[in-house]
Design a protein that fits this description.
single chain, alpha+beta, five-stranded antiparallel sheet, four-stranded mixed sheet, about 30% helix, about 25% strand
Length: about 220
C-alpha cells in the first residue's frame, strides 16, 4: 500500500546558528556522520546534514515512537540508499542552499533539485539526445529547460537505483509525464519548491497526493 508522497525541504542561510548543525550531526548514526564529515566545504557538509535531518524528521512523522529511525539506513550495491527491512521509499537531494527529502511507501521514488545558475549549455549536449537538445534550444527559457530535463533524468535514476555515472543519459527518454530508460519507466512531477530552483519527483503522477512541507532548520533538532 502506498502513502501520499511527502516532500520535506528547508533553506539554509548565512545566519544559521552553527551549533544547530553540530546538534543535528550528533543525532545521526556513526555511518552517516562519517560520510558527511569527509566533505571539505562547509556548505556541502551543512546541506548533507540538513538532508539527513529531514529524512529523520519525516520518518518520525510516520512513527513517532522510533527515536532512531536512521539506524537501518543502508545502501544497495548500486549505491541506492534504503531502510533495511522496510518498504518505506525515500530520496534526498540538495543544491545551492536548499535540501529536500521525499518520503513515501510502496513505490519507487527519486527526487532531484537544482539551482538554476548560468552555465555553458553546450558542455551538457552529450547527455541529451537530438530531440531533447532541439527542445532545449527552442525553449523560451533555454537555461530553465536544460535544468528541467536534467532533473527529470537524475530523479528517475535515483528512483531506479542506477548510478548516474553508469547510465547512458542520452538514452533516457522524456515524455509529457513519463520518463523511460531501457526496460524502466516512471511517471514524474515537476515543481518549483523555491524561486530560482527546479525540482522533479520521479515516481509521482501529477494527480498524486503530494504534501509539500517547508521545515525550519531549528525544527529538525
Amino acid at each position: 500500500m502506498s502513502l501520499p508522497i511527502s516532500i520535506y525541504y528547508c533553506q539554509l542561510s548565512g545566519t544559521d546558528d552553527p551549533e544547530i548543525f553540530g546538534r543535528l550531526l550528533h543525532a545521526l548514526p556513526v555511518q552517516s556522520k562519517s560520510s558527511i564529515v569527509k566533505y571539505a566545504a562547509e556548505q556541502d557538509r551543512r546541506l548533507r546534514i540538513a538532508g539527513k535531518a529531514l529524512l529523520r524528521y519525516g520518518l518520525q512523522q510516520l512513527d513517532p515512537s522510533d527515536k532512531n529511525p536512521l539506524d537501518q539506513y543502508r545502501h544497495t550495491e548500486g549505491g541506492k540508499p534504503l531502510l533495511q527491512d522496510s518498504d518505506i521509499q525515500f530520496s534526498i537531494s540538495h543544491s545551492g542552499n536548499v535540501a529536500v527529502c521525499a518520503i513515501t511507501k510502496g513505490i519507487p521514488l527519486g527526487v532531484d533539485v537544482e539551482q538554476v545558475l548560468p552555465l555553458q549549455a553546450d558542455l551538457l549536449q552529450p547527455y541529451f539526445n537530438k530531440e531533447q537538445w532541439q527542445n532545449i534550444l527552442q525553449a523560451t527559457d533555454v537555461l530553465y529547460e536544460l535544468y528541467r530535463q536534467w532533473t527529470i533524468k537524475e530523479a528517475a535514476l535515483k528512483a531506479w537505483g542506477i548510478a548516474i555515472g553508469e547510465a547512458e543519459l542520452k538514452e533516457i527518454h522524456i515524455e509529457d509525464d513519463t520518463v523511460r530508460y531501457g526496460g524502466h519507466s516512471l511517471p514524474y512531477h515537476m515543481t518549483e519548491l523555491v524561486a530560482g530552483y527546479t525540482a522533479c519527483i520521479a515516481g509521482a503522477h501529477n494527480q498524486d497526493k503530494i504534501n509539500f512541507l517547508h521545515i525550519a532548520l531549528a525544527a529538525l533538532q
